[in-house]
Amino acid sequence: MADDELEAIRRQRMAELQAKHGDASNNQQGEEAKQRETDMRNTILAQVLDQSARARLSNLALVKPEKANAVENYLIQMARFGKLGGKISESGLIEILEKVSQQTEKKTTVTFNRRRVMDSDDEEDY
């Protein structure tokens, strides 16, 4: 009976090790896929933007990463569909940034929710 229990523990431990090793290889493959995607994005952006525009976009990425990511996605989409007629200069990038800012601009509204509190002014108790 002790041999059966020992064998069951060994099988369980072996399954855990295999699962852990499988997860590590999946993580490594996921990291490699992310690295390939990042390299591809950088290559496309290098082909589409001139040096000053890339510098401005990298500065924007430091301050507002979500906006820079939106602009990068927009530029990559335009490049894939062939709607860009050459390299984009810094002034062209500024125009694109303004378009993206207008599209993603958050409209803030303030609403007052007044609660009625029992005041002595509301009731006439004499």
Automatic annotation (TrEMBL):
Protein name: Programmed cell death protein 5
Keyword Acetylation: yes
GO MF, one example: DNA binding
Cellular component GO terms, alphabetical: cytosol; nucleus
Keyword Acetylation among record annotations: yes
Region spans: Disordered: 1-38
InterPro entries to which the protein is assigned, alphabetical: PDCD5-like (IPR002836), PDCD5-like_sf (IPR036883)
Function comment: May function in the process of apoptosis.
Keywords: Acetylation, Apoptosis, Phosphoprotein
Organism ancestry: Eukaryota, Metazoa, Chordata, Craniata, Vertebrata
Entry's family note: Belongs to the PDCD5 family.
Basic and acidic residues composition bias: residue spans: 7-23
Highest taxon of the lineage: Eukaryota
GO BP, sorted A to Z: apoptotic process
